[in-house]
Structures are given as structure tokens and as C-alpha cells.
Amino acid sequence: xxxxxxxxxxxxxxxxxxxxxxxxxxxxxxxxxxxxxxxxxxxxxxxxxxxxxxxxxxxxxxxxxxxxxxxxxxxxxxxxxxxxxxxxxxxxxxxxxxxxxxxxxxxxxxxxxxxxxxxxxxxxxxxxx
Length: 129
Fold this sequence. Notes:
This protein is of the alpha+beta class. It contains two helices and seven strands, in the order ββαββββαβ. Residues 1-11 have low confidence and may be disordered.
């Protein structure tokens, strides 16, 4: 089931976004909720695809969120988020799920409401960078 969403242009605080996938780059003017839903739903047929949401200004301290299909998670997904601190340090977090709608909701919240997910349940993988 694809979630029903009534999000308008994100513009809550004048943050604009670019979305990058394997096959296309979407400027802010081309982004709407259905684009995000279609990209994540398309992971089922293209396991090499990905989505990267890049805000023009940090969301919290996050400079991007990305999601990919994850064979390691069965038929699941890996979502990652990077926080960059004012002192130049960063933290990188990863979350795995088999729930496509959860991934869609995270991406829509990040884009439409400039809302970060609850990182308490995410894995800090900063040491991998």
C-alpha cells in the first residue's frame, strides 16, 4: 500500500532540496511527494537505484539523507543520515528496515517537514568513514 500524502511545497523555512537517483537529478521545483514515493517504490525493480535528499541548509545538523535497497536486510532498505557539526566534526547514522512505507515516511518527513527521524534506534557508523 502506498501512503496517501497531502504535502505541498516544502518551503516551511525556505529550505530547498535536490534529489539525486541513479537515473536522474530532480531540482527543488520538480520535487513533490509522488516523486519520492515513486523512487522508493521503484527500488523493488531496480536494486541498484538509490535516493539522496540534499537540503540547501542543514535539517537540524543533517546535510543529507539517503536510502538504498539492501540485500543484506532481505527485501529491505538501508537509510543513512549525516550530521555535520559547527566544529567540522560529523556523525553518520544507518538504519535498516524491511518496511518500504517507513522509508517513504522518513523521506517525506525530511523533505516536507524538515524533520529528522529518532536517531536513538539508528546505528552510529561514523567509524566507517
